[in-house]
Design goal:
With 139 residues, the protein is α/β, with parallel strands linked by helices. The protein has a domain of 89 residues: Nucleotidyltransferase, domain 5, CATH 3.30.420. Helix content is 37%, strand content 15%. It contains three helices and five strands, in the order H-E-E-E-H-E-H-E. The radius of gyration is 25 Å and the shape is elongated.
Length: 139
């Protein structure tokens, strides 16, 4: 009896689909990183607090940055009181119970923050939270 040994064909891994998936993931992370970077105004130093709620963001949460001079920044653009109210009214009409996080600078006058809260409530937004950070421990 004659046995013939056949070498199996080499296994090939299709690289094109794997490269496509890697590039899609790369694009996804770059785009989401840019959005999160645009929401945070680096000129704002939020107040420190030892106690606070969970810092996890809610899906679809809008971030309002309030600088120490009273300027309100949303999505990287400065808005006046009526402009901010119009934007928030448009959002509130689309999404019920829209969450908003106010990132007020530690040096912002309290009256300015109250004015932003008032604008949110007049626009129909009641789900409001405030951003704080824990104090740094001296080492």
């Amino acid at each position: 009896m004659k046995f013939t040994y056949r070498q199996p064909p080499p296994a090939s891994i299709p690289l094109a689909p794997m490269i496509d998936v890697v590039f899609l993931l790369l694009i996804f992370f770059i785009v989401t990183w840019q959005f999160s970077r645009a929401e945070m105004d680096l000129d704002i130093a939020v107040p420190t607090q030892e106690e606070g709620a969970d810092p996890k963001r809610v899906l679809g949460e809008i971030i309002l940055n309030v600088r120490s001079d009273g300027t309100v920044i949303i999505w990287g653009q400065s808005k006046s009181g009526p402009q901010l109210r119009q934007v928030l009214e448009n959002i509130a009409s689309q999404h019920e119970n829209q969450p908003v996080r106010i990132r007020g600078d530690a040096d912002t006058p309290f009256q300015t923050i109250v004015g932003v809260i008032d604008t949110c409530q007049k626009a129909g937004i009641w789900n409001i939270s405030f951003a704080t950070q824990q104090p740094r421990v001296a080492e």
